[in-house]
Design a protein that fits this description.
Layout lengths: L1 H17 L47 E13 L9 H16 L5 E6 L6 H21 L7 E7 L8 H7 L2 E13 L5 H9 L1
Parallel strand pairs: 2-3
Antiparallel strand pairs: 1-4, 2-4
């Protein structure tokens, strides 16, 4: 009886030892943020610019590649023959331009005034100077600092190219312009962007 009991005990122990051991699962604690919130291809843990624009070309640090673009804002003020008076329509345009300048206080303004060919060269030089001064005075009256404005009286030396019937009218004008650089993100190429550009 004792032998039978001992044999049964040995069989039970052998059966237990033959069962495969259960593998213990272990998860290492995540020490870095592997998400990519702005979807630029760089994980948050390495991303120094977490809000890059969509489709921007980025470097290894997740910051977009910037391109410098020269922008010019131009307004043409036309005058009647032998006149330096500004018509009401162009006064309204100058008001809009002055508002733009007040929102961009770092911009400098260049006024170039012209005259048509009839009359002597000296007279037209004086006329273009009066036109430039009149535009400057209008901008100053609208709140633009005079020190931001440069004027050039060109006279009839540089007029707009046009047909003979239009040349005299189009030569009586003052050009008001600002120029500045703007940084923009370089975008990835896509066929959809090319198609959109072709439609514009």
């Amino acid at each position: 009886m004792k032998r039978l009991l001992a044999l049964s005990l040995l069989l039970v122990m052998a059966a237990c030892s033959s069962e495969p051991e259960q593998a213990t699962s272990y998860q290492a604690p995540q020490s870095q943020d592997l998400n990519d919130d702005d979807l630029d291809g760089v994980i948050n843990a390495r991303d120094l610019c977490l809000e890059t624009p969509p489709n921007a070309v980025v470097g290894n640090n997740g910051c977009e590649t910037m391109l410098s673009q020269e922008l010019e804002n131009e307004l043409l003020v036309f005058f009647k023959h032998d006149s330096a008076s500004i018509e009401q329509d162009f006064i309204n345009e100058l008001e809009i331009y002055a508002a733009f300048l007040s929102q961009n206080p770092s911009l400098e303004v260049l006024i170039q005034a012209y005259a048509s060919e009839p009359g002597s060269q000296a007279y037209n030089q004086d006329l273009s100077e009066r036109r430039a001064n009149r535009v400057q005075q209008s901008l100053v009256k609208l709140g633009v600092d005079k020190n931001r404005i440069e004027i050039q009286a060109v006279g009839e030396a540089q007029s707009i190219n046009a047909s003979s019937t239009q040349q005299q009218t189009l030569s009586r004008y003052a050009r008001v312009a600002t120029q500045h650089s703007e940084q923009q993100a370089k975008l990835k190429w896509s066929v959809f962007r090319e198609q959109r550009g072709a439609l514009l």
